[in-house]
Design goal:
Blueprint (H helix, E strand, L loop, with lengths): L2 H11 L4 H20 L2 H12 L2 H12 L11 H25 L4 H13 L2 H6 L2 H17 L8 H13 L4
Helix pairs in contact: 2-3, 2-4, 2-9, 5-6, 6-8
Amino acid sequence: MHVADAQREVRYVFRGGLMGQLVSGLLWIGSAAAATYSTPRTAILLLVVGGFFIFPATMLGLRLLGGPWKLSPDNPFNALGMQVAFVLPLCLPLVAAITVHHQEWFYPAFMVLLGAHYLPFVFLYGMRMFGVLSITLVGLGIALAHRSGSSFAGPAWLTGARDNATHGCR
């Protein structure tokens, strides 16, 4: 299978990332709501624990939409997708270490991590849009971490809104 064919299948099966962005955006909004109306600890746990269910929830959503919901066995990007998926959980100890010393940096640090996670999607999907998302998240995460006096929940609301707004940009 050629790279262009594999990318085309990834875009088709995963609807250009629509379902994953929707699930992720809803999780970030839920975490933002918890940060606003509950405690930072609840918000952090919701995002971290809920993050482990993004892929299964995405698969469920794709199945409910009908049509294909997984790549063909001969698509070489099956392995790449799995490797990209493990980047986020493997970097969570870094976010935890940052959060222990600066709780208000939890969301900005997670935004930088999420932005880095999106970068390989440029190749996986063959869509430059993921590069724009990557740069936006990393830049905003860095900027928000250096802004004093910002709300704890603000970056989460921003990221949730971004995830839900961008799924229509494909």
